[in-house]
Amino acid sequence: MHMSLLTSTLQLDRQAKLPMFRQLYAAIKQAILSGAMPPGMQLPPSRDFCRSLSISRQTVLNAYEQLLAEGYLCGAVGKGTYVSLQLPLRASAPPALELSAPDRTPPLPPPQALSQRGLRYANPAGQSHFHQDKTRAFRVSMPGLDVFPFQVWARLEARRWRHHEDKLGYGDPAGYPPLRELLAVYLKAARGVNCRPEQIIITSGSQQALYLLSTMLLDPGDAAWVESPGYRGAVAPLHAAQARLCHVPVDQDGLDVAYAAAHYPQAKLVYVTPSHQLPLGMTMSLQRRLALLAWAKAQRAWVVEDDYDSEYRYSGAPLASLQSLDQSGCVIYVGTLSKVLFPGLRLGYMVLPEALVQPLVQAKAIIDKHTAIVPQMVLADFIAEGHFSRHIKRTRKLYGERQAALLHALDTTLADELRCGASDGGLDLAVHFRQGRDEQAIVQAGLAAGLELRALSHYVTASEETKPDQFAPGLLLGFASVTEAEIAQGATVLRKLLREKN
């Protein structure tokens, strides 16, 4: 390519933020890759090139130097600079070369499709919701960030970083030992969990715990009971692990164990939220708990107890954890700090039967070596100095007041439209429509009106083998993250849009 033709096709933008030498480098590189500058072609001397483009010689030299370093060009002082002969480039050149060509080139398809396992991860059933905008009524599963003692947390973290020598290397895959010791004491006192610190593994949120358990405990095709409606965050890793999902209906006593045992007797794993069923909110009765444990013992099946928000109960004494009743070592207790502290912390934990500790620690090490050390250290200090228990006590009272505000609004403003579900505890409240409604239409109307609503049907996952029993359609309303005034205002807006949809 003659220099005049080359320089005429190089369109450098002198107003762009990208340095001139990077623009020149990118243009020449694209010309080589596209075949416009074929292997063996000699480039103009830097002095001539800079004059023809009206740029500094150093700009040209910098671009040439980068291209030489990356192997696109070859040459030596006094012998000229050439396009490398070693590049497997296209034989035919495009008619013109422009700096903007890379932006207009359509992306090539990937070399190959996803693996079968990858397709299961990409399945819409695995999609999870996350929020980046300001909290508003009625966001679900969100604690009150307005009352978290961030100044205390910041002080504890700063203190840890002032003595950073033990925080820069790798840590124990199972987690920071002092934190595990403190959690063992707390779980025994608060939830009746029987364990030694060595049975606790700290995870990057409870979601990682569910992924590890799905992967390590099930082979493709193994059956797993899941509640219907139930937590999609648990269904997703089970689906990705190629488990056969067995959707089990729930009633006022929780998971229907008799139904599940009759329809899916060979299941290898049960996922259950016994303290506060997600999303309907009931507590699993003692009779059902004992029946589930008896079935699991007889079938040698694992029971995964997700105790995601048991700290928040507003009426009556909470039942002890399912794990505390386990006599055969079949229950795996999973907890999270997202609901008590803040979701961005990404700290969760598993309490494992002795037989699972070593393999799960090894699996955790393979996945990510260990969960970040400093947050674990800060949390240990937060617990040891009493801030954790004080925060739970304070937020339990506050969330109880916010739930009462929502119940009052439902009774005074929405009683003719909505029927309230179980309200013993948690951060959310399930409500059911008193007359036929299109859930998705209500959700979209709420979004337009500034409300964040979650349809109960969101928690139902269709199965090729079975469909869950019908349940009353409705909404899940979060109350913990918004003030009483915002709850009252949100109820007024919700009443208005429900009447407009009549």
List keywords for this structure.
Arc Repressor Mutant, subunit A; four-stranded antiparallel sheet; alpha/beta; 502 residues; Aspartate Aminotransferase, domain 2; Aspartate Aminotransferase, domain 1; 3 domains; 17 helices; elongated; eight-stranded mixed sheet
In short:
Helices cover 41% and strands 13% of the residues. The chain has 17 helices and 15 strands. The strands form 3 sheets. An 8-stranded mixed β-sheet has the order 4-11-10-9-8-5-6-7, sandwiched between helices. It has a 4-stranded antiparallel β-sheet with strand order 12-13-15-14, with helices on one face.
Number of domains: 3
Alpha carbon gyration radius? 30 Å
**Sheet having the most strands:** 8 strands, mixed
CATH architecture tag of the largest domain: 3-Layer(aba) Sandwich
Describe the structure.
The protein has 502 residues and is of the alpha/beta class. The chain has 3 domains: 3-104, Orthogonal Bundle (Arc Repressor Mutant, subunit A); 124-131 and 151-386, Type I PLP-dependent aspartate aminotransferase-like (Major domain) (Aspartate Aminotransferase, domain 2, 3-Layer(aba) Sandwich); 390-500, Aspartate Aminotransferase, domain 1, CATH 3.90.1150. It is built from 17 helices and 15 strands. The strands form 3 sheets. The chain has an 8-stranded mixed β-sheet, with helices on both faces. The protein has a 4-stranded antiparallel β-sheet with strand order 12-13-15-14, with helices on one face. Strands 1-3-2 form a 3-stranded antiparallel β-sheet. Strand 8 (269-272), helix 12 (286-299) and strand 9 (302-306) form a beta-alpha-beta unit. The longest helix is centred in the C-terminal third of the chain and has 26 residues, at 387-412. The radius of gyration is 30 Å and the shape is elongated. The protein starts with a helix and ends with a helix. 40% of the residues are buried.
